[in-house]
Amino acid sequence: MKSIFIIFLSILSFSSFSQNTQGLFDKAYTKQKNNDYKGAIKDYEKVIKADPTIKQAYYNRGTCYLGIKDFKSAILDFNKTIEMDPTYKEAYYNRAVANVSQEKFKEAIPDLDKILELDPKFPNTLTLRGQLKAQTGDLEGGCNDFNQAKENGDKEAKKYISQFCNDLKESNDVKESLMLDWPDAEKWKVGSNQQKDKMIVVELIHENETLENWTEFGYMNSVIGLKNIDLEKAMNITFEQAKKTASKSKLTFIEKDLDAEYPWIIFKIESPSFANDKTPESQVWYIIQGKTALYSNFRAIKKATIPEETTKKWLNFFKTGKVVNR
User: Fold this and answer.
1) Is 308 found in the same domain as 244?
2) Beta-sheet strands, E only, within 225-280
3) Does the pTM exceed 0.85?
4) Tens digit of each residue's pLDDT (9 = 90 or more) over 86-101
5) Which CATH number does the domain housing residue 19 bear?
6) SS3 category, 256
7) Count: domains in the chain
8) Strand pairing of 250-257 and 216-224?
9) Which is nearest to 67 in space by CA: 8, 132, 126?
10) How many CA atoms lie within 13 Å of 74's alpha carbon, on the beta-carbon side?
11) Contact at 8 Å (CB) between 106 and 126?
12) Separation between Cα atoms, residue 227 and residue 225, nearest integer Å
């Protein structure tokens, strides 16, 4: 997605500035154009101190913060810009970029929605939103965005259609699937089986337990059409999502084979407690990339850590998984 991150700069004449303020702004902007982001930030601070009503100063300072990867500060400046001007499309776009840079994909989509509400042909917005939709499981929605972007003349759209959408029709037939042999001796049963768009989620529990009260939990997620995913990045995204509700979570990489026909990675996330629940939960994850889908799976227990013996048992279980074609 980095290839379409464009930081829009304000190249405007501010006749309403005082001469002194205009000079400060021009000095800051010159440093910004020369990629002296830290120097520009200091000068924009002087502009804002002299006249806190200049929205372009907040916006430009935000783009400088993006340049040095201080995403939180950038978002604060874009928030201020939007507060001063709710129609400032570039501020919405770059706030989305700041969130995507932190792998907060779902948080970025509403800003892109707002831009398209203001301007359906705003550059790069449909292709960026399409990628975010595809990455978060809404492949059909993503492909709709890519096709609309193509109609609007976006040259990048064709590349994303080729990457994400060529197999969409075939994927509807679910010709590929992941087979995991959940041991009969452990008396597993399906607690929930749901499908939405191109995502299939199956939740498993022991036969004498419920989804609300379980001792061991199984999870299988298939996102049809999601391909060419960086599995190590997927592991880190999964961990970051866990930390949002369990800040003391610990990530441990276990094993991977990224050169296999179907690349895979296994890791565990151990959480001693959650923000709204003191009950611990720890998981061993198995993510495998198929030809036409991404498969994410885990087994969980309500313990702060997973015993080494259990970790080995679950590792061996997941390594029996096979991607099959029907």
Assistant:
1) yes
2) 250-257, 264-271
3) no
4) 999 999 999 999 999 9
5) 1.25.40.10
6) strand
7) 2
8) unpaired
9) 8
10) 25
11) no
12) 6
